[in-house]
Structure formats: structure tokens, C-alpha cells
Amino acid sequence: MNLNEIKQLIEIINGSDLQETIIEEGNFKIILRRSTSNVTTQVMPAQQYQAVPVLSAVQQGAAPVMAATPQPAKSEPAADLVESRSPIVGTFYQSSSPDSPPFVAVNDVIKKGDVLCIIEAMKLMNEIEAEVSGTIVEILVENGQAIEYDQPLFRIKP
Questions:
Q1: Domain-wise residue ranges, the chain
Q2: Alpha carbons 44 and 28: distance in angstroms, whole number
Q3: Rounded distance, CA 67 to CA 22, Å?
Q4: How many other CB atoms are there within 10 angstroms of residue 13's CB atom?
Q5: Rounded to the nearest 5°, which phi and psi values hold at 14?
Q6: Which tens digits make up the pLDDT trace of 88-142?
Q7: What are the pLDDT digits (tens) for 60-74?
Q8: Is the distance from CB of 30 to CB of 56 less than 8 angstroms?
Q9: CATH of span 82-157
Q10: What whole-number distance in Å separates Cα of residue 121 and Cα of residue 45?
């Protein structure tokens, strides 16, 4: 099961009256539950049946389960700034390797299509590109930080 299939399942749950669904495929198990404000995703091997809250990312086999972390209060961006947001859930990296310099830094001038960062999701490295040209005003997350879908990552002055 891949990330797109899981997103589709979440959309189906959100658009239905279902409160919970459990899907098992071999040793892979995913539980989607509706709560008052969002859908909680739980994934664990089929032989384990204890309820453990996790991030909205998929964990398979004996991988450690990560507890969800509360997001800081959202600060409003200035009217003339554009926020670059995460298209997926994963881990934020500022460079392609620990020894490499960051893709961008505050006050860097960027062009549309420039790589801003990498987000690791399900052992896949996804390059996140700039949607606008401009200057990096603020980097809102730390290197190695777990991030959520649609979380602001950068503020850019076009």
C-alpha cells in the first residue's frame, strides 16, 4: 500500500459516515478512525493489536511507532509573503546529505522550480521545489523535524 492509496482511503472515510475501518494486507494493517476534528491513522504488523497513536505516515514491519507531536500555534504571514507548504507527511531535510550545504538559506534569491528541501516519506526522498521566484524570508522548520501535510515550511517574498 502506498501513500496515494492511503490518502484516497482517508478521503473516502472523510466523505462517508464510517467512523472506523480496518484494512489488512499480509503482515500490514492500517486502522482509520474518525474523530471530531480529523482522521487518526494507526499502522502496525498484523500480529500486534495494541492501539498506539502515530503520525499520519505509514510504518511497516518492526519499524518504531512515532507518537504525534502537537504543532505550534500558527503565526500569520505578512500579506506580501508566500508560504511554501508541505505536500506530504514526512521528515524535513535542508540538504541532500549531512555533509552537503543546505539547498536554501534565509535571504537566498530563488527561482520557480529551484529545490528548497527534501521530505523523506516511506523511505523515499522527495525534492520540494519552489512554486514562486523570490527571496527566502523565513525557514519555519528544523532539519530532521517530522512534518505534517500542508504545514508551512518557508516564507518567500515574491
A1: 1-69, 82-157
A2: 7
A3: 20
A4: 18
A5: -65, -30
A6: 999 999 998 889 999 999 999 999 999 999 999 888 889 999 999 999 999 999 9
A7: 444 444 444 444 445
A8: no
A9: 2.40.50.100
A10: 19
Write out the E strands in 5-151: 20-25, 28-34, 39-45, 82-85, 90-93, 109-110, 115-121, 124-129, 134-139, 146-147
> Could you give the CA distance from residue 58 to residue 55 in angstroms, rounded to a whole number?
8
In 3D space, the residue among 111, 116, 104 whose CA is nearest the CA of residue 132 turns out to be 111
Does residue 119 come out as left (phi exceeding 0), alpha (psi in the -120 to 50 range) or beta? beta
Angle at 96 between CA 67 and CA 104, to 5 degrees: 95
The identity of residue 68, as a single letter, is A
pTM over 0.70: no
- Distances in whole angstroms, Cα of residue 106 to Cα of each of 8, 99, 155: 36, 19, 9
- The contacts of residue 77 (CB under 8 Å, 6+ apart) are 83, 152, 155
